[in-house]
Amino acid sequence: MIDVAKLFSLQGRSALVTGGSRGIGRMIAEGFLRAGARVYISARKAEACDAAARELSAIGPCVSLPADVSTLDGIKALVAAYQKHEPSLDILVNNAGAAWGAPYAEFPESGWDKVADLNLKTPFFLTQALTPLLKAAATDHLAKVIHIASIDGISVNPWETYSYAASKAGLIHLTKRMALTLAPERIIVSAIAPGPFASEMNKSARDHADEVAQRTPAGRIGTPEDMAGAAIYLASRAGDYVVGSTLAVDGGVAWAR
After folding, report:
1. Where does the pLDDT of residue 212 fall: very low under 50, low under 70, confident under 90, or very high at 90 and above?
2. Which of 32, 101, 156, 185 has the most C-beta neighbours closer than 10 Å?
3. Alpha helices (runs of H) in 96-250, residue ranges in sequence order
4. 187 within 8 A of 171, measured Cβ to Cβ
């Protein structure tokens, strides 16, 4: 008999969510807490990270681990900080990201490097650094890595966000390659490609939700429940057989462009 409650439970598991102080990262962190996980959130701004962790702690155990994961030194610092709390890691969500928009003829190298490093390089090297802890967790259940990509890596948006689109498309392909490498180690890698969710990065959905909803086949922007549900599915036993795939959570926007 299928135990649905157990199928989607994260009871007793540990999770690290980068960029977890706001937006999509916070939605995922809250969902994991409500599913029973111990959650660690990381963000570059320590004050915002600490404040978010305090608020989320009203739901369940949530710890702030401020770090700048755009550099290898920052990644090492985050791993060291996490290891002070846990000997293993069940779930890693690579959500920290950046965007940059500029006309083609004026697009700067700084806007390319900042975005490509955080959106594409960081998920690889943070996962690499945490792989021993993920292996340690993969005992009677599988460890999980979830990359947060974007529908802009699936279909072309009307904005000139060259490095963002390229990095997210690259992350979707990297998810497949990493999945093949890590599956034999009992570490399952998958990705989520969000569409319009209200966040600092998606100010259109945040500030003009009604207008964006009109361009969305589902007729609305995404809610915290939509994002939390997708992440819990992939992180729990329910998502064990989803290997290397990217789940578009976008209300159909990627197919309507």
Report:
1. confident
2. 32
3. 109-116, 122-137, 162-182, 203-207, 209-214, 224-235
4. no
Alpha helices in 35-161 (DSSP H): 46-56, 72-83, 109-116, 122-137
Sheet of strand 62-64, all strands in order from the earlier edge strand to the far edge: 62-64, 38-42, 14-18, 91-94, 143-148, 187-194, 246-249
What tokens were used for 173?
A: 């392909």
Q: Give the span between the Cα atoms of 54 and 148, in whole angstroms.
A: 24
What domain count does the chain have?
Answer: 1
Helix (H) or strand (E) holding 100: none
Q: In angstroms, rounded to a whole number, what is the distance separating the alpha carbons of residues 158 and 257?
A: 9
pLDDT of residue 30 exceeding 60: yes
CA atoms within 13 A on the CB side of 217: 10
Q: What is the CATH number of the domain that holds 210?
A: 3.40.50.720
Q: Quickly count: other Cβ atoms within 10 Å of residue 159's Cβ.
A: 12
Grade residue 214 by pLDDT with cuts at 50, 70 and 90: confident
Domain with 73 in it: 4-256
Residues paired with residue 25 on neighbouring β-strands, in sequence order: none
Question: Catalytic site residues?
Answer: 164
The proportion of the chain whose per-residue pLDDT surpasses 70, expressed as a percent, equals 96
CA dihedral 33, 74, 230, 234 (to 10 degrees): -90
